[in-house]
Structure formats: structure tokens, C-alpha cells
Amino acid sequence: MMRLDKFLVSQGIGSRSEVQRTIRSGQVLHNGTVCKKPEQKTDELHDKITYCGEFIEYRKFVYVMLNKPAGVLSATEDKNAKTAVDLLPADLQRRGVFVAGRLDKDTEGLLLLTDDGDFAHKVMSPKKGVFKKYYAKLSGSVTAELAQNFRNGLTLADGTQLKPAFIEVLAGDTSAIVKICEGKFHQVKRMFETGGLKVLYLKRLSIGGLALDEDLPLGKARLLSDEECEKIFVQSA
Ligand code: URA
User: Fold this and answer.
1) Pair 121, 89 in one domain
2) What is the pTM for the complete model shown?
3) 64: three-class secondary structure by DSSP
4) Residue 106 Cα to chain centre, angstroms
5) Dist. CA 205–CA 215, nearest whole Å
6) Nearest to 191 by CA among 224, 156, 221, 164
7) Within a domain: 237
């Protein structure tokens, strides 16, 4: 149980003072009856709350898929650049969601955001072995030797030792699908650099068994269902 105003704030509906004003003005229904008391005890799991005509479905945490465009930072806020959080609807921004597994500014594709810290940790921890799959366009051909080095576990120029990665070189040899289970700084770009190749374009296609929804336009976000969240921890082919 929690206070009605606290329930509404927790769901990202508005600030404490905003929701209190709206409650007092008679625009909030508690189980079908107008309730003008911000302190009304509310059972978040069972009570039906309507705010300005809209039913508020309680979510303890939210899990969001964003199709990140290039030029957007994987950050919560930034003075100069647009951030992933800037692209989300106001209610999700107010919940304090953050990025679970960053992408570089120029990388596109699947970005997860959540307000669940344990979930974010599980997605990012190399120990959990959640593979992230990328499509990369390259400045030249991938040699058989480089592909083998990926599989063996590369050592980067600064001595960082990587876990084995999967690579499938695509027709023409200048693009590839890469799967890694870590998230080191610029990892995919630095992996190809060991073979003298530049990454010209990079897109994240999936995280664990969850693929980017190709119907989601660039720059758009949507909530994940429980089933989709579970897929993240099931390895894809
Ligand atoms: N590897 C990179 O180099 N960049 C990304 O954005 C993600 C993985």
C-alpha cells in the first residue's frame, strides 16, 4: 500500500506537487470514485486508478527498447548532444530510466533502458554471458586469420584480453555479423582495428535472444513485454 500521490509519482505521471493539484481538482478516480485526497491509501497491485481520464497500469519497473539513431548519446543527459533518454516519452523520463549497455554515438540499433538496476547489471555483466550481436560494415576484407583471432579471444592494442567472439563474414568480405559477451569501450571497432580495418557503420541487432524490432522506426522506443525481457537471458542462434 502507498499514498495515491506517491503511486502516481512512482509511475512517472508528474511531480508530487503536480499530481497533488490534479487530485485535489477532482480529476483522479480511485476504484471508480473521485478521490480528492492525495494521502488516500492505494493498493498499487489491485486498485484501479484513472488520471485525467487515463487508466494508470502499475509497473514496478519499466524495460524499454530504443532503436537508437547515430548522433545520439547513450546517456541520461548532456548539455550539448541529444541523449537516448531525450527520445523517450515524458512519463518514462520522469521515472528515471537509464541505459543498460551503452552504444557509441555513431552506432545505431538496439538500446535497452530501464529503471531496474539489478536487471541492468545482469544484462551488462560479462559473467552472465549475454551475447550482443552487431552488424558491421568495414573498410576492407576480413581475413581468415582475423576471424580466427576473434574466435580465439583477441588481445587489443592496449593489452586488454577479450573473451572469444563469434564472427560470420558476409558476402563480399567487407561486412560481418559479430557476437560479443562483453562491453568494453569501442570494443567492436578496436577488435577490427587489430586487423587494420575501420568500422564504417555499426548496428546492434540483438541482446541475448531479444532482436531489435525492425518495425520500430529509428529514434522510436517502446516498452518490452515480460516475455521479451525473459528472452534477453536466453541465448540466440
Ligand atoms: N562496439 C563498438 O565499438 N561500439 C559500440 O557502439 C558497441 C560495440
Assistant:
1) yes
2) 0.93
3) strand
4) 16
5) 13
6) 156
7) no
Alpha carbon nearest to ligand 1 atom 3, residue: 186
Pocket of ligand 1 (CB under 6 A): 103-104, 107, 186-189, 202
Contact residues for 8 (Cβ-Cβ < 8 A; gap 6+): 14, 19, 23, 28, 49, 51, 56
pLDDT class of 237 with cuts at 50, 70, 90: low
Report how far ligand 1's centroid is from the alpha carbon of 27 (Å): 47
Expressed as residue numbers, the domain containing 98 is 63-126+211-231
Looking at ligand 1, which residue's alpha carbon is closest to its atom 7?
A: 103
Which atom of ligand 1 is found nearest the CA of 204? 7
* % of the chain with per-residue pLDDT over 70: 99
- The answer to the question of residue 36 being in a domain is yes
CATH number at residue 170: 3.30.70.1560
Calculate how far, in angstroms, residue 203's C-alpha sits from the geometric centre of ligand 1.
8
Number of folded domains in the chain? 3
Q: Give residue-wise pLDDT tens across range 10-43.
A: 999 999 999 999 999 999 999 999 999 999 999 9
Tell me: the pLDDT tens digits for 42-71? 999 999 999 999 999 999 999 999 999 999
Residue nearest to atom 2 of ligand 1 (CA): 186
Q: 70 lies in a domain?
A: yes
Place of cell 577488435: 191
